[in-house]
Amino acid sequence: MKNTARTVMLAAILSALLVPALAVDPAKVPDRYKWDLTAIYPSDAAWKQAKRNLEAKSAELEKYKGTLGLSATKLKAGLDFIFSLREELARLDAYAMQKSDLDVGNADALAMRQAMGPMGSDLSGKMAWVDPEILAIPDEKIAAFLKEEPGLAMYKPVLDDILRMKAHTLSPAEEKLLADASLMYDTPESVYTLFSDAEIPRPSVVLSNGETVRLDASAYTNYRASSNRWDREHVFSAFFGNLDQFRGTFGAMLNGECKKDWFNAKARHYDSCLASALDGPNIPVAVYENLIKNVRKNLPTLHRYLKLRQRMMGLPELRYSDLYASVVKEVDATYTPEQAMDLTLKAVAPLGDDYVKTLRDGFNNRWVDLYPYPGKHSGAYSNCAAYGVHPFMLLNFNGTYEDVSTLAHEAGHSMHSFYSNGTQPFATCDYTTFVAEVASTFNENLLNDYMLKHTNDDAMKLFLLGSYVDGLRQTLFRQTQFAEFELKIHELTEKGEPLTGDRLNEVYKGILEDYYGAKEGVTVIDPVCYSEWAYIPHFYYNFYVFTYATSLTASTALSQMVLEGKPGAVQNYRKFLTLGDSMPPIDELKIAGVDMTTDAPFDITMKAMNRAMDQMEALLDKMQKEKK
Ligand SMILES: [Zn+2]
Asked: At the top level of CATH, which class does the domain 337-455+546-627 belong to?
């Protein structure tokens, strides 16, 4: 059965990218801007009692062992019991995690949170027999049970998901062997993490102001965005030059990772690493291939953006190291929490009055913990693990436009959870990673559009358009560039080719040159950048990055259809929000209005990107004329 913490994990990864905020005194913050966790449990004591109850209840699991295939009634009783345990576990986890996130220094809250890990593993251990027992029931018998007992219908997606794995489940002895082998699986990734986060020697550079900087990963991310071009180039060449010196070692690690994936895929009768990785989340391989095909087809749009960036930066030639310096000035407008909430509510108005009303009620009823406090978890996330309560959003609001956009983003997640939880039984309420970032980025797009329509300030317009277009560059093009590399190196492994550092550089170089138009003179790429692959931890996440690109394409296309007033667009999207995990994610997106195996969503997204660039060019022409 699927892990229910996935959506939160994704939010945590994304939130790590946000800038730490300035802290305020929690005692001075009105309750309105703070979570009320008593909505989950009235007190810590109640949480502890619920935990003891769950521990006692989980001992009863044994009674259900060996009964699931006996009759339709027994199967339903077993699943009801299993999911009631999982529901309580998720609720306990939500309370402990959120309480601890409000004050990471609170030892009691930390102890509650830490108790959840062993409790979760204990429960999974006690449920380890469930999937194999369901897999052992013949398909015809399951079909007959479903006909006989209408109450089983709500578990059909869960059963389908388990039965789908039948062809890739081995004999008990083989499964045991694979489970033992899996203890070695994380070696390449843990060596990579240890080496690249800690043990690799770091170079130093002297910046144009005379300051000497030791280039670890965080200094690199900081200084690559420098407004001084000379500094950017030196930082790039020192940082990647250093990685390049160790390309043999990095290559051996990545080779190990790819070989592990191929071993696992073959053992489970998949014909490729990609097919194996996408089968778990139930995504057709065609979605991945279609993404790469369409992004490649639309590289001229990326090249247009790169030329526009060159113009805005006033550079004689654009270098790969020029891609992180900001081209549009951050607008210094600041927003109060009430303004941020009001803007978000106005921006989502196209989704209907009841959507707006529900979200407004949420803002009024403490769904949001808004301000940064000393000791509060950084970044932002939405959590809705407490089924039947309501979503909770954690923010660190400082009043910038970025913060308003983050509120709209998290509100998108929360409303998706709200409608899915309100429509689906617990067993299928939790939407999957593949669709998780659709509702959030959809709302960001609506906000961007609302702001553009309601400002007369050219600098603000340029900022909004610039962030929209650069978002597509970073999320759609760059993540697909990684996805393509990940696919290519796995294909080489499948052919038995060893991945050395030199070979990996060569593959990466080919992709970089195509994406950034090196041969057409769009971007100049310093050869040290061919080892950028060694900097990307995602190549150890087994075909994960592409979901960033597909999510943003889906949400951009869907928001365009809503904004353009396409008949049925709002209803279809609203229907999608209610689906949870009740059908394959690709089918959910089809209901929303996009088929991710076709060109259409990419065509709409590229049209939107080009239109935004038309507007940017017109604004630049106008601003240039005014200067003269
Ligand atoms: Zn998100």
From this structure: mainly alpha
Compute the CA torsion angle 268, 288, 436, 15 (nearest 10 deg).
Answer: 100
Q: How far is the CA of 380 from the centre of ligand 1 (A)?
A: 8
Hey, what are 179's tokens? 């489970």
State yes or no: pLDDT of 13 exceeds 80. Answer: no
Residue spans of the domains in the chain: they are: 35-169, 337-455+546-627
Strands 204-206 and 392-394: unpaired
**Strand 392-394 with 368-369, pairing:** parallel
- Torsion (CA) 591, 597, 599, 604 in degrees, nearest 10: 30
Q: Using CA atoms, how far apart are residues 430 and 415, in angstroms rounded to an integer?
A: 12
Structure token pair of residue 87: 């529901």
- Domain range 35-169, CATH architecture: Up-down Bundle (1.20)
Pairwise CA distance, residues 562 & 351, whole Å? 8
Question: Which pair of structure tokens corresponds to residue 225?
Answer: 């965005």
Please give the Cα distance from 12 to 15 (Å, whole number).
5
| d(CA 376, ligand 1 centre) in Å | 19
Report the candidate in 271, 283, 249, 276 with the shortest Cα–Cα distance to residue 261.
276
pLDDT band at 567 (very low <50, low <70, confident <90, very high): very high
Partnered with residue 394 across adjacent β-strands are 369, 381
Q: Is the dihedral of CA 195, 11, 15, 467 positive or negative?
A: positive
The alpha carbon of 602 and the centre of ligand 1 are apart by a number of angstroms equal to 21
- Residue 538 CB neighbours (<10 A): 16
| Equal CATH topology for 35-169 and 337-455+546-627 | no
Residue 26: pLDDT above 90?
A: no
Q: Which residues are catalytic?
A: 410
Beta-carbon contacts of residue 523 (< 8 Å; ≥ 6 apart):
306, 318, 319, 320, 516, 517
Q: How far is 15 from 406, CA to CA, in rounded Å? A: 10
0.85 exceeded by the pTM? Answer: yes
Query: 13 C-alpha vs ligand 1 centroid, how far in Å?
Result: 9
Share of the chain above pLDDT 70, in %: 96
Residues in Cβ contact with 577 at an 8 Å cutoff, skipping those fewer than 6 apart: 415, 416, 419, 420, 439
Question: 257 or 121: which carries more pLDDT confidence?
Answer: 257
